[in-house]
Amino acid sequence: MKRFGSRFAALATSMGLPSGAWAGAALAAWLAAAPALAGTVLEQSLASPTLGRDYRFTVYLPDGYADACLSYPVLYLLHGANGDEHDWLVKGKAESTLDALIAGGAIPPTVVVMPGHKQMWWVDANAEKSQTVLMTELLPEVERRFRTIADRSGRLVAGLSAGGLAAARLSFQYPDRFAAAGALSPAVYEPLPPATSSAMKDPPFQKDGKFDPESWQRLGWRPLFDAYRTQPLVVPFYINSGDIDRFEIAYHAAVLFRDLNRHQPGKAVFRVVAGDHEWPVWAGTLGDALKYLSGHASAPVEAPPSACPPKT
Known about the structure:
By secondary structure, the protein is of the alpha/beta class. Helix content is about 35%, strand content about 20%. It folds into 2 domains: about 1-35, no CATH class; about 40-305, 3-Layer(aba) Sandwich (Rossmann fold), CATH 3.40.50. The protein is built from 10 helices and 12 strands. Helix 4 (about 95-105) runs parallel beside helix 10 (about 280-295). The chain is globular. The termini are far apart.
């Protein structure tokens, strides 16, 4: 309790409230009187013709979405190889991070879509066509159901580990679709993943019952990046890694950053933070990534009257 009391006292002082013994009570009273700013999380699914089953995703809607006549920037936030549509919310604390950043004005109100496709690495490979579902089914369905900015200026993509690799691949393949990308501890291994990586056993990279190096290299980021460099659009990138990442991603991420920075100086950043390949790294740096990404996307814009909530 003493630790939390000292934090209350410091925050109360910074806000001009009484210090000392009454600081905690004064801050509690101020918080109770202040308007609550909190987003809403929805459980969603779509009937996927590609998969022949439902495809699940969660959506964060910023505070005020239900009443405003606005279209919002949208972030597609991808999980790691063994995750699902709840990972960023439960393990990554994305909802509270978004609430705090939006309430504090650090980022504009943003819709965040968190799809779930376990072990598929967001690629079309030797298993389910995960990229096809994401790009041809999920994106248009989100833009149909929700008021999002349905062009490049309002779309962002980010992810962790396998999702970080996907963010790089999607941005290099579709630079006309995304305003910026975030790759947190991205699994951008070259030439092959380490023996302990889940890529060695997950379905997209299996052939004849074993890991297929050709599939990995064909679906890596390098071939797409080579094509990306020949076209004029630039996708700003946020990249990070834990300093003791067990898969040596700090090295692989540095290679990605080096090549990006050579191609587009000043339009990529690389952070190395304390930690392993673990949720404290991703939850702890999500806010930093969101601030960078939002700086390259459109703010909310007025929506067409036909898309607005009815007036009461």
